[in-house]
Amino acid sequence: MQLNKLIDHTNLKADATKADIKKLVDEAVEHDFFSVCVNSSFVKFIKEYNDQVTIATVVGFPLGAMSTRAKAYETKCAIEDGASEIDMVIEIGRLKEGDYDYVLEDIKAVKEACGDNILKVIIETCLLTEKEIVKACELSVEAGAEFVKTSTGFSTGGAKASDIALMRKTVGPDIGVKASGGIHTKEEALEMVENGATRIGASKSIDICK
Q1: Beta strands in the chain (DSSP E)
Q2: Which residues carry out catalysis?
Q3: Cβ contact 179:150 at 8 Å
């Protein structure tokens, strides 16, 4: 297994500069990572800098509490700028209060804006019970998402192997599972893969692949 091929090399920091993003892209090329994952303001910049790199970007990030209309428009703009993968955050509060129709339609609207591009749904596992993790995964699959993803990396915790295993069990073999948040070493990344992750989101990608 080539671990580097599973990695979305990530910089979502608020103070990231163009120089930081160029470095991210250059590192992704050098180490043959699957993609770079950035905030949407950098998508067009990356496309112009190196149009051979797969670009993932975040939508409704990091809280997920934006209106559905705003998320869909943000997605549309990101795709037009050159993103080919969208990592969206669900409306976590609506999920927790059982407003599943809202959550489903929220994801559907973003998927519609994605078209044939990949949608990853960030469910923020650290804020959810096991039952809520299962429901979030079920709604994501029903809405047509290609991936479920653990975390933004900006909340109270990141990916856990037990959550990955639960997500994999819920979505079955054909939907991607992305482990993201707090993965710093090769051992941690491999543990996620062994439990069912098919993609790793990390800013410490080079350390992971050493």
Answers
A1: 7-11, 35-38, 55-59, 85-89, 118-122, 147-149, 176-180, 199-202
A2: 87, 149, 178
A3: yes
The backbone torsions φ and ψ at residue 112, rounded to the nearest 5 degrees and listed phi first, read: -60, -40
Q: Which residues of the chain have pLDDT under 70?
A: none
Q: Give the pLDDT of residue 1.
A: 77
Residue 97, both tokens: 């209060």
Integer Cα distance of 195 and 210 in angstroms: 21
Query: 3-state secondary structure string, 180-205?
Result: ECCCCCHHHHHHHHHCCCCEEEECCH
Contact 205, 7 (CB under 8 A): yes
CA atoms within 13 A on the CB side of 171: 31
Cα(172)–Cα(203) distance, rounded to whole angstroms? 28
State both tokens at 173.
């073999």
pLDDT (0 to 100) of residue 210: 85
pTM above 0.70, yes or no: yes
| Residues 6 or more apart in contact with residue 179 via CB below 8 angstroms | 149, 150, 159, 164, 189, 192, 197, 199, 200, 201
Question: What residues form DSSP beta bridges with 36?
Answer: 9, 55
